[in-house]
Each structure stands twice: as C-alpha cells, then as structure tokens.
Amino acid sequence: MHTLLWTALAASSLAQQAAALDWATAYDKAEAALALLNQTEKAGIVTGVTWEGGPCVGNTYAPTSIPYPSLCLQDSPLGPRFVYPVTAFPAGINAGATWDKQLLRARGAAIGAESKGLGIHVSLGPVAGPLGKNPGGGRNWEGFSNDPFLSGVAMSETIQGIQGEGVQAVAKHYIGNEQEHNRETMSSNIDDRTLHELYLWPFVDAVKADVASVMCSYNKVNETWTCENDELLNQIMKTELGFPGYIMSDWNAQHSTVASANSGLDMTMPGSDFSEPRGNIFWGDYLIEAINNGSVPQTRLDDMALRVLAAWYLLGQDEGYPAVQFNSWESSDHGGHAAVDVTGDHSKLARTLARDSIVLLKNDGVLPLASPASLAIIGSDAIVNPAGPNNCSDRGCDVGTLAMGWGSGTDQFPYLIGPLDAIQEQASADGTRVVTSTTDETGPAASAAAGADIAIVFINSDSGEAFITVEGNEGDRNTLDPWHNGNGLVQAVAGANKKTIVVVHSVGPIILETILAQPNVVAIVWAGLPGQESGNALVDVLYGSVSPSGKLPYTIAKKEADYGTGWVMGEIDDYPEGLFIDYRHFDHEGIQPRYEFGYGLSYTTFDYSYLHVDVSVSPGPATGLTVPGGPEDLFDSIGEVSVSISNTGNVTGQEVAQLYIGFPADAPSTPPKQLRGFEKIQLTPGQEEEVTFPLTRRDVSYWDVGAQAWVVPQGDFTVYVGASSRDIRDYDTFTV
Ligand SMILES: *[C@@H]1O[C@H](CO)[C@@H](O)[C@H](O)[C@H]1NC(C)=O
Ligand SMILES: *[C@@H]1O[C@H](CO)[C@@H](O)[C@H](O)[C@H]1NC(C)=O
Ligand SMILES: *[C@@H]1O[C@H](CO)[C@@H](O)[C@H](O)[C@H]1NC(C)=O
Ligand SMILES: *[C@@H]1O[C@H](CO)[C@@H](O)[C@H](O)[C@H]1NC(C)=O
Ligand SMILES: *[C@@H]1O[C@H](CO)[C@@H](O)[C@H](O)[C@H]1NC(C)=O
C-alpha cells in the first residue's frame, strides 16, 4: 500500500517547491526504527500515559530501544495552554478575519516557535471543525471561518507556519463536531456531497500542506463514533486523501479497542478517562491482547507506529529537539511556569493581527477620531477583569473585556491591554478629557455619555467548550444577542449622546438590529477576540494610524432565524441544510443579510477595473494518482483571474479582493456563489495595482456522489470579483 503512495509522492514532490517536507525519507527512517521496537514499545508510542500522567496534556510512553521521547502534545490553537509566559494571540476567527495569508503564516510560525521552545512536539491545532455552520456554535471562534475555502487557506498557512518551525500540527476536529450540546453522544448525519464540499474541504488543504496529524472528534457521524468510523478514517482520510500521517483521538473520544484500531485510529489520547482513579484504557496492553486473540492484525499496529514515527522524522524532531520546559499541572489555575521565555517579540505580531482583523461595520464619518475634546468610555467590556485577565480557569467567565472564548482552546494572558488603558494613553497625549462608566448599568452609562463629545460603548458575547457553563450557556450560545443587556446599554448611551460608537467583542455574529435602530449610533467596530493586544490594536484603528482592513468571516443576519441553522437539543443532526450554510443560504433563499460575508469598511475607497479571466479546463473527473490531499490533477492550475485595484481615497489602506464562482446549471443544486480566491493588498492614495487569483481544477469541481469523484461540469461559469460576497464590482464568464 505504501509503495504506490510513495511513488506518487516522489513524483509530485519534484513539481512542488524545494522546501516541501519529505514523507518518503521520513518513512524510510520510520521503517528502520520500527524494526527495532518490541510489541510493548509499539503499543506504547500509540497510547497516551493517562490524563495528568506527564507534563503535557497528552504524553506517550517512551521506548528504550530507539531514541524516541515521550511525545509532548499540548493545546491550544491560539498559543500553548497551561504554561506561562506565552503569547495570547488573537483567536482563529480573528486570524480568519484578516484574510491575510502572510499574517496567518506568521501567526502559525510564532505559535510553532513558542511550542518548540517549550519542548512541545505536537501543537493541537489548527481548527477546521467546527466549521461553524451554527452561528451560536460554542467553539466556532477557534476556527477561521465557516467558508470552507477561507478556512482551508487559513489551515494551510497556519500548518505551514507551525511545521516550518519543526513542530507537528494537528488538523482538528474531524468531523461534524458543529455544536457543544451532546457532543459526546450525538450523531451528525452528513450526506456525502455536503461532507466533501463543506466540512472535508479544509481538511484536504491541511493534508495537502503535509499536516502531521488529524484528530477525530467526540461525536458520531451516521451513528458511528468518528474515532471508529472506517468510512471517515480508512476510506476518506487515508485512502481518498492519501493522508500519510497519523490520526489521534480527541481526549477520551475513543470508545473501543478493536473497532477503533481496525477503522484506522493511530493514537489514543490521553490514554485514560478523566475520572479518579483513571480507568477506561482501550489500548496499551489491551491492544496487544487484541492482536494476540486475532481481532486486530499485527500489520495494523505496525502501521500505527510507523505513521507516528514518520511524522516525528518528517519534522526533524529526531535532531536536537528541546526537552519539555514546563509541567501543565504545577498550578491548577495557571499551569506551569516555563523554564525559558519563548515570547520573543511576538507581541508586535499579536498587535498587527488584532488590528488587521478589526472589521468596521458602520461609520457615519465619526471615525477616525481626531483629538476629541472629551470621550465617554462605557461598559464592563472596556476594562480588564479587576481580578486579572486569567482569573477564571480556561477563561470560563465573562468578566471584563472579552479577548478569547473559553475552554481548551485558550492560553494564559501574559498581560491584557484593555480598551480603556489604551484609549486613556492616547487621550492624555491628545489632551482629551475621559469620563468612564465601567459597569453595564444604564443609569451611570447615560450620565457619563451625556457629558462627552463622543461616547464609545463596549459590548460582548462569549462562548466556549461544553465542560464549562458560563452564565447559563453550556458552551454554545443561547442567543445571538449581546450579553449583559448590551442592547439596553447601547440604547441608554445613544439616548444621551449624539455620537455613539459601539465596539463589539464577540465569538461570532450578534444581532445588531436594536443597536442600528438608534439614530445616534454613528459607528460600529467589530473587534472579535483580539487577544493580549486588544486595546492597542483598537486604538490603532479608532484613531486612524491604520485604516481598518478586516472583513467578516461569516454573515451577520438581521435575525437569528435567517441563518436557517442552529445547534440542536437532540441526539441527531441530519444537516438538512446541506450545502446551504451562511452566505450560500442567504444567496440561495434571497434573504438580505445585515452585513454580508466578506464585508468590511475602510477609511479609504477602492476601485476595481480591468477584470481579466484566463481559464482553460477540460470537463470531467479528476483521476490522477493520489497525493496527500487527493488526486494529483485536482490541484492542477487551470489559469488565473486578474483585476486592477486602485486606492481612490485619501489614506493608505488594505483591501481584500474576493473572487466567487457561480457554477453552470450542469452542476446540480450548487450555491449561487462560492469563494474561490482572495488577495489582500496595501495601496497608498492614488496607487493602482493588479492582483491575480490563481485557480485550480478543484476550484471549479463539485463532488459527484455517483462517480465518487471531483468533477468539472460543462457549461458557463461566472466569475465574480468584488469587495464582499455582495459588493460585486465586476463579473465575467468562461465556458467549459
Ligand atoms: C520491550 O522493551 C521494553 C523497553 O523499552 C522492555 O521494558 C520490555 O520488557 C520489552 N518487552 C518485551 C516483551 O521484550
Ligand atoms: C452518511 O450517510 C449518508 C446518507 O446515506 C451518505 O451520503 C454518506 O456518504 C455517509 N457518510 C459516511 C461518512 O459514512
Ligand atoms: C480480544 O481482546 C480485546 C482486548 O482485551 C477485547 O476487547 C476483545 O473483545 C477480544 N476479542 C476476542 C474475540 O476475544
Ligand atoms: C480570582 O479572583 C479572586 C478574587 O480576587 C481570587 O480569590 C482568586 O484566587 C482568583 N483566582 C485566580 C485563578 O486568579
Ligand atoms: C480627499 O481629499 C480631497 C481633497 O482634499 C477632498 O475634497 C475629499 O473630500 C477627501 N475625501 C475624503 C473621503 O476624505
């Protein structure tokens, strides 16, 4: 089985860039190492040592026959968890909102560098599941966008960043873990086409980017646990996508010894349940027993160990890798104090990412601020939790300004610059008088607002992982309204001040209709989950030292029901919406969103001209040899689209040009428009530049269930280029 794959790999790697990781050599080394291991050692490197059994959140047994360590696996997707000091980067959803490939790569590299410095072999991220089909899904903010293309590009850039530093990345959670309620018992019943075109899509990018590992999720798919689902693991991930790395379980997502092994699981984590005394170990000695009694073939254990070893060699972790520099369990609140400071100058990158992720939703000309005489700063979200930014373990409370969600996808803030801290610094330089009301009480808010030229009111909305309930929200959000009576707070402020600016810190969309109904709300700034540099990044945008350049990575609806999806209370989600989530649904149903996918204002304006489409592709299925990601020819270039963009305003700014494709009628029931390209470009006033969107065969294919292949349909395709999914500036067609 491997020989065929490696021949294709060797051939394809010639065509790729020289820096591509070399699985073939890694497998040669792994084969040699495997030959030296006895049965106990093989089982040991695929089995966790129990929860809290080692310094990291996941640890494996170290063999003595080869110089291979107890592997250290550590959360989280926004920075190393349970250790300090580290950098608290903006969350995945903000990284997605930058639409900036270079920043996504740099963020991955910085997380990789901190992980390596700490001796972490395996960084448990990035996240493409949940994809985010449910706007209130608790962990959506850990991932980048509910659009599979944007998510896929972000996955690829992040993985290349992390792995470029020599750290193994993990694409998680595979697959259909779209809500927190009942996540460990429910079944996501996803039809084959929807699985391929939405939920699997970003995992394809991850595999294509040579991700070392994939993590199977808590839920079932079609009534079978994902971690013992032969169709998902053996057939789709390992055969169809040709994934050469290893599949690990989410923490305690394994439910069997034999079925999981035979279905393609390669590593179990953490090797025990979370109870005291630790129990429920499915592998280790039981895996050996299952081989001895003939229910699991020896070749399967060899394959598991081979994959785990190959990933380790792939990243060069056999040479000079640092020892683990912390113990996660040193303090139940803060994790371990690192023996080294790995943060370097990452605060600068954290600020740039936070700044470039801010989406300006509305601006009647009040922004950027120009040394106002007085400012009222209002709301508990304007200040850092007085008990400290890390006061709630795993950030499981919503006290003070919101800068990350809660659960395992968090890390420790080394510090948190609150909005008020940063604004006060700017105000004192400008001689601006600042009045504050830093609770969410409406009376004091109105009084403060009445006494100032401009009022800035802060509201938020939080969510996280199911193991913590915050203010009655069991992971998923109960509503899409702002928390802490945010609508009432804004009404009170806008009732007292004619220039009210609303700043939103949120895990995802909130319904803004009440706020927009206040005529005195003259600007809305969406700051998402900005991480440690929150206040500084906000001041950069509010005062115009940079023009805002973030774009929404999801749709903001006028009402929650408009999404047509939402987390379910029961044990089954049949995914009845199919392909039609987020803007695909709004476009299909002709529903007007409040702020569409891809939307975001700037302090300048951009013109689009000279759209040029140069595409040539043959119809039919991709049939090439399997390389990591799928058939080789699926990734073939089919040409490019280009457009000229000019800055027609008065300040320097960045624009995210977006390319959407409309499929011909020959492709059955396909969304009207699907994102297939984006480029972020910075332009000075008057400057004009051409951007090009390279297209591959994959970009114009749909998943043909009958053929079990990616197929390019015949007919007229439409190419839309614009500043959002609805602000289309020009379009053209090509015919296949
Ligand atoms: C396998 O090797 C380990 C050392 O890594 C040793 O402790 C164990 O006894 C060996 N097991 C067998 C069955 O030889
Ligand atoms: C789940 O069931 C649907 C409906 O029968 C089918 O289209 C799909 O391929 C199945 N998926 C998996 C992973 O078994
Ligand atoms: C073989 O051993 C495994 C591990 O103890 C066990 O789960 C499985 O039921 C056994 N199968 C048979 C047929 O004895
Ligand atoms: C949170 O703050 C309270 C009150 O100041 C304090 O007693 C507690 O120790 C703090 N916990 C953490 C984890 O910082
Ligand atoms: C840009 O500058 C010109 C000339 O000073 C002025 O007329 C125009 O209103 C400015 N545009 C904006 C958007 O500020």
Task: Provide a descriptive summary of the structure in words.
The protein is α/β, with parallel strands linked by helices and 736 residues long. Among the domains are: 23-71 and 248-258 and 266-335, no CATH class; 346-555, Glycoside hydrolase family 3 C-terminal domain (Rossmann fold, 3-Layer(aba) Sandwich), CATH 3.40.50; 604-735, Immunoglobulin-like (Sandwich), CATH 2.60.40.10. It is 26% helix and 20% strand. The protein contains 19 helices and 30 strands. The strands form eight sheets. The protein has a six-stranded mixed sheet with strand order 1-2-4-5-7-10. Strands 12-17-16-15-13-14 form a six-stranded mixed sheet, with helices on both faces. Strands 9-8-6-18 form a four-stranded mixed sheet, with no helix packed on it. Helix 4 (92-98) crosses helix 13 (346-357), helix 5 (101-117) packs across helix 6 and helix 13 (346-357) packs across helix 18 (534-542). One 2-acetamido-2-deoxy-beta-D-glucopyranose (NAG) binds at residues 649-650. One of its GO terms (cellular component) is extracellular region.
Throw out a few tags for this protein:
736 residues, alpha/beta, Rossmann fold, Immunoglobulin-like, 19 helices, 20% strand, binds 2-acetamido-2-deoxy-beta-D-glucopyranose
Write the layout of secondary structure elements.
Blueprint: H1 2-15, H2 23-34, H3 39-45, E1 58-59, E2 72-74, E3 83-84, H4 92-98, H5 101-117, E4 122-123, H6 148-164, E5 168-174, E6 187-188, H7 192-199, H8 201-208, E7 213-216, E8 220-221, E9 224-225, H9 230-240, E10 246-249, H10 258-263, H11 285-292, H12 298-314, E11 336-337, H13 346-357, E12 359-363, E13 374-378, H14 419-430, E14 433-437, H15 442-450, E15 454-461, H16 486-494, E16 500-506, H17 513-516, E17 521-526, H18 534-542, E18 572-573, H19 582-589, E19 606-615, E20 620-621, E21 626-627, E22 630-631, E23 637-647, E24 653-662, E25 674-683, E26 688-696, E27 702-704, E28 709-712, E29 716-722, E30 728-735
Parallel strand pairs: 2-4, 3-11, 4-5, 5-7, 6-8, 6-18, 7-10, 13-14, 13-15, 15-16, 16-17
Antiparallel strand pairs: 1-2, 8-9, 12-17, 19-23, 20-28, 21-22, 23-26, 24-25, 24-29, 27-28, 29-30
The structure holds 2-acetamido-2-deoxy-beta-D-glucopyranose (5 copies).
The site of one 2-acetamido-2-deoxy-beta-D-glucopyranose (NAG) has 4 residues, from loops.
